[in-house]
Amino acid sequence: MCGIVGLFAKQENISANLGVHLSKMLESMSDRGPDSAGLAIYGKPLASKTKITVQSRSPKHDFQKLKKFLSAKKEISFSLNIHSTHAVIKLDVKQKDQVTNLINDSFSNLRILSVGKKMEIYKEIGKPAEVVKRFEIAKMKGSHGIGHTRMATESAVTTLGAHPFSTGEDQCLVHNGSLSNHNSLRRELIRKEMTFETENDSEVAASFITYRMNNGKTLKEALESALVELDGFYTFVVGTENGFGVLRDPIACKPAVLAETPDYVAFGSEYRALTSLPNIEKAKVWEPEPATVYFWGH
């Protein structure tokens, strides 16, 4: 029993307060997931720039060492902003592969959580209220975001096991449910050169979607193929550079609710996740249909 939230801003008044709204939504799902929590925030992209979000268990030491290490590479122009146990590195998109390889090769204590022009991921062990306070999520702005509160059932309670899972640039997934064929799918995806950080079944779902999209499928087509190839119970919310998509399995035993106004589209595992949003009493509110793909994009 996990909790999912999502918010897609249609108007600037929502974008300017995206972090405030997502924080309240996530905290309302605390009893559905007290083990860990996380959010993906999609901010305004910078021309020719990309962002790498990294996490450390010893941030004071590791981030100072990382900054010194990258500064010694005169050809790399970057900025590094620290948010508690996370740091966001902004750099030229042409240097993305070089820097990700340097981090993976030289910093065993660091974990890359996300790469993208717009997306930053923040996730940690702890109750949702603690996580949003630690990373000052309420101060963040953006076009859209998704979040998750986790009650662990399939794997250990760790930072890497928290959601969202990102397996592609500006792509991430949050999941409520359980996949029964994730081990066989993981083996198949490894043969196709996808890599994994955890034993979590939700990471397999994220990787499955990314693999399909890397091979020419749209998000809608990738989610439709999930209906055929993923066994189990699930509600997915998938974030992309332009928006987010929603899918429930054909039985749809996991709760889900959507709401739409002229200002936003919102998703919650339960309606109470939406009650703090502006003019929610005037919103169109409905339960997403089973085996049906929904998407909102800019």
Defining key terms:
298 residues; alpha+beta; Glutamine Phosphoribosylpyrophosphate, subunit 1, domain 1; Alpha-Beta Plaits; 2 domains; 8 helices
Secondary structure: elements and pairs:
Elements: E1 3-9, H1 12-15, H2 18-28, E2 36-42, E3 49-55, H3 59-71, E4 78-83, E5 86-92, H4 96-106, E6 111-116, E7 119-125, H5 128-134, E8 144-150, E9 165-168, E10 171-179, H6 182-191, H7 201-214, H8 219-229, E11 232-239, E12 243-248, E13 257-260, E14 264-268, E15 284-286, E16 294-297
Helix pairs in contact: 6-7, 7-8
Describe this structure in words.
- The protein is α+β, with helices and mostly antiparallel strands and 298 residues long.
- The protein folds into two domains: 212 residues, Aminohydrolase, N-terminal nucleophile (Ntn) domain (Glutamine Phosphoribosylpyrophosphate, subunit 1, domain 1); 73 residues, 2-Layer Sandwich (Alpha-Beta Plaits).
- It is 27% helix and 33% strand.
- It is built from eight helices and 16 strands.
- A seven-stranded antiparallel β-sheet has the order 7-2-8-1-14-13-15. The chain has a five-stranded antiparallel β-sheet with strand order 9-10-11-12-16. A four-stranded antiparallel β-sheet has the order 4-5-3-6, covered by helices on one side.
- β11 and β12 form a beta hairpin.
- α6 crosses α7 and α7 crosses α8.
- The chain is globular and about 55 Å long.
- The two termini are 31 Å apart.
- The model has no long low-confidence stretch (mean pLDDT 96).
Widest sheet: strand ordering: 7-2-8-1-14-13-15
Total number of distinct structural domains: 2
Distance between the termini: 31 Å
Strand content: 25-35%
CATH architecture of the largest domain: 4-Layer Sandwich
Number of strands: 16
SSE arrangement, N to C: EHHEEHEEHEEHEEEHHHEEEEEE
Rg (C-alpha, Å): 18 Å
Q: Would you tell me which CATH topology of the largest domain applies?
A: Glutamine Phosphoribosylpyrophosphate, subunit 1, domain 1
Tell me, rounded to a whole number, the average pLDDT: 96
- Can you identify the CATH superfamily of the largest domain? Aminohydrolase, N-terminal nucleophile (Ntn) domain
CATH top level assignment of the largest domain? Alpha Beta
Poorly predicted runs are none
What is the helical fraction, as a range of percent? 25-40%
Please work out how many helical segments DSSP would assign: 8
